[in-house]
């Protein structure tokens, strides 16, 4: 890991959508903060975290709220979902 400040470029943000912060903590601890910023977004704050769009979305859960689905609609991003893909996830 580098001692450089975290990137501010939104194209280098990875957002974890999950009710619990476990995946966020794992990714934060294993990815170089000089290359990517890892953010955790529980459902109640996700709209602010997705503006501007991150370059990667990681998540868990079977459904996305309508607010999350609307925030993602029309955006190009890479997504990794643990378990079955959530209904409402734009494809």
Describe the fold and architecture:
Strand 1, helix 1 and strand 2 form a beta-alpha-beta unit. The longest helix is centred in the N-terminal third of the chain and has 9 residues, at 22-30. The chain has helices spanning 22-30, 46-49, 66-72; strands at 13-17, 37-41, 56-60, 78-82. By secondary structure, it is an alpha/beta fold. The chain is globular, with a radius of gyration of 13 Å. Strands 2-1-3-4 form a four-stranded parallel beta sheet, covered by helices on one side.
- Taking strands numbered 1, 2, ... along the chain, how are they ordered across the largest sheet? 2-1-3-4
Q: Helix fraction?
A: 10-25%
First-to-last CA distance: 33 Å
The residue-averaged pLDDT reads 79
Structural features:
single chain; alpha/beta; 3 helices; 22% helix; 22% strand; globular
